[in-house]
Every structure is written in C-alpha cells, then in structure tokens.
C-alpha cells in the first residue's frame, strides 16, 4: 500500500491522518461530522493519490455510522479495528502513555500500513442484508428489553400481589401472557382483583384473545383472587398498584415492539435468496434464520472456511498452550448475538431433527454437560450451514448426520 488513512472518530468531529509506506505523515485534518466534512476528507485523500481505480484504504475504530457508510459507498476498503488493539499498538509508538486524537489517527493508519493482512475489511454485504440486520438486531434487543421489563414487574408484584403470580404460575408465558396483562390493567392491586365480578373477568380474558373455556378460566381466576392472602397496608397497596401500572405500560410497549419488529424482520428475510436454504435446516424458522443471516451476512468471502465462522460464533473451542500447560476451553470473545441465536437453534433442532438429537445424546454420554453438548451441536450444524450456503444446496438430514458416508455436507460439520 502506497498510502493508508486512519480516522479517529468522535460524535461531532473526526481526526484524519494519511501516512505513506515509510510511515511519513503525508497529511492530517480535523473534519466535521457532516457532508462538508466528508468532502474535505475526500479532497485530502485525492491529494495523496486516491482514485476510483485505486482508493486509499481506511482504518477506523467502528463499523457503524454515517461516516463508515459513506466510506464504503465510495468503493474503498474500510477496516474496523478493535479499540483494545489500537491501545496495544499505541504503546509501540509512545511509551510515555500520552494520548491525543491526532496521534490515534496516525496509529490507525500505521496499523493498516504494517498489518493489513492481519485484519479484515468490512464485508461487502448487500443492502438487503444490512436492512435485515437492522431489524433483526432491533427485535433481539426488544426481546431482551421485554425480559427485563417482565422481571422488574414480577419482582415488584412479589412484594404485595402474590395472587396474580399464583394465578398464572402454570402458564408458559407467565406475566407475558395477554390475559395476565389484561387483568393487571383493570386490577393492579389484590383488593381490586378480589372485587372483580365473573362478567368482568370473562370480558377481560376475551379481550386478551381467549376463545375457549372462557367461563371456566374466569371461575378459576376468581377462586384464586378471593383466597386469603397477605396484604400491604391499604395506602401502600394503592401506591404499589400505581407503580404496577407504570411497569405494565413498559412491558406492553416492549411486547408490542417485539411483535411488530418480528413481523417486519420475517417479511424482509423471506425476500432474500438465502432464506430458502437457511430455513431448510431443522430448528431454523424465519425469525431465527433472519438473526443468523444478519450476523453472517451474504458476502461469502467473509468466512472462507467453516472454522472461521465457528470461531466468530464462539462454538469452536480455543486452546491456550504455554510450556507444559495446555488448556482447551470454550470461547468467550465472540459474536454474542450469533452465539445467543445458536443456542436457540441447537435447542430447537433437538426436537426437529433425529440426527441432531442423536448427536446431542452421544455428546452427553461422552461426558459433556448440557451447555457443552448443545454448543457442540451448534458447532456441527454451523459447519453444515456454511457448506450449504457456499454450494447453494438445501439441508439433507440423511446426508448431514450419516454415520457411514463422508459426504461434503457431513465432512463440513
């Protein structure tokens, strides 16, 4: 590379440095975070040999934002360098531990000058995959927000309203059930719940979407609410009921966001040409497949080998060896979103695929604990997914988990 560029980004401005192959500083500039600043950056790069046929590569500490999007749209290679790696490189240049934005830009440019082969440019994913990633990650965040809101509400209800927890203890969704939220909305305190009539309870569960055994459910709830329970003082109970309504509003908003984003994510995912291959795998529905595609992208050059994808997902073990010591453990540095999706995928595959279930049982018999066996299953199926996406073929249960043949699909695992 004859010249490399480093950008130390901030919220309202960015420091830019361009160095040549001999580490000489060719130019530096502080640009604003707007269109005018981006034009200033392009002029600086053009002054030092940047052209459409041979663009100057750029190193920056983030993979997101308008600046990165515009740099990628200009056709140049953009390298997102981990900030911890930048801190280690900085110590090679300055032992006094001083730091400045300009100095960090120079360090980034020199990282690219000396170690470009050790880093990967941002993948060339399609715009459709980028849109799917936005929605899938937002939906995953909404699920986590919903779980936090549910836990906060449940913890609060334990302080004064055990009847509502008992009423829905046998439900799979607990307080996330629409019926539970509908009843909390009309009876946020145990006193109000005990005064509910059968007709009002039937109306509440009907509005929540229940279509069968409505009268029996209303009678069951009425019996639970009219039992003798420990109670807070009346004024305290009323105040806690007001807090319940506030927490319930947050939970309702999180549930609504989850449902709406899930529909939008699935609709967009099914438009992608890889959707048919991904959903052919057992345990992968449209939403889980969208989350998976959002993290691996559709630039097949990004993961040249299945082992690279497995390392990114954290399913492949990592070895730490020094002298006579050798330890093999699971990876902690990984794509957390991909790893979380992999756990759901492997768990769902246990009931959807006889071969996956048999593989899991073999791992348990060999001594693996539950999570280790599940992670090993995810590791195997991730290799199969890499092979299928690369060769453009759908999943085949007989080939993937065959014990007698070593087909490409089975070997990829």
Can you walk through the features of this model?
The radius of gyration is 28 Å and the shape is globular. It contains 19 helices and seven strands. The two termini are 38 Å apart. It has helices at 35-47, 66-73, 83-93, 101-115, 127-157, 162-167, 178-186, 190-194, 198-207, 214-225, 234-269, 275-279, 286-296, 306-313, 336-352, 354-365, 370-391, 397-400, 408-412, and strands at 3-9, 13-20, 25-32, 58-60, 78-80, 317-322, 325-330. It has 413 residues and is α/β, with parallel strands linked by helices.
Task: Please provide a brief summary of the model.
The protein has 413 residues and is α/β, with parallel strands linked by helices.
What topology emerges from the helices and strands here?
Blueprint: E1 3-9, E2 13-20, E3 25-32, H1 35-47, E4 58-60, H2 66-73, E5 78-80, H3 83-93, H4 101-115, H5 127-157, H6 162-167, H7 178-186, H8 190-194, H9 198-207, H10 214-225, H11 234-269, H12 275-279, H13 286-296, H14 306-313, E6 317-322, E7 325-330, H15 336-352, H16 354-365, H17 370-391, H18 397-400, H19 408-412
Helix pairs in contact: 3-4, 5-11, 5-13, 7-9, 9-10, 11-13, 13-15, 14-17, 15-16, 15-17, 16-17
By oligomeric state, this entry counts as single chain
Largest sheet: 5 strands, mixed
Give the end-to-end Cα distance, rounded to a whole number of Å. Answer: 38 Å
Shape: globular
Structural class: alpha/beta
H-E order: EEEHEHEHHHHHHHHHHHHEEHHHHH
List keywords for this structure.
413 residues, 58% helix, alpha/beta, 19 helices, two-stranded antiparallel ribbon
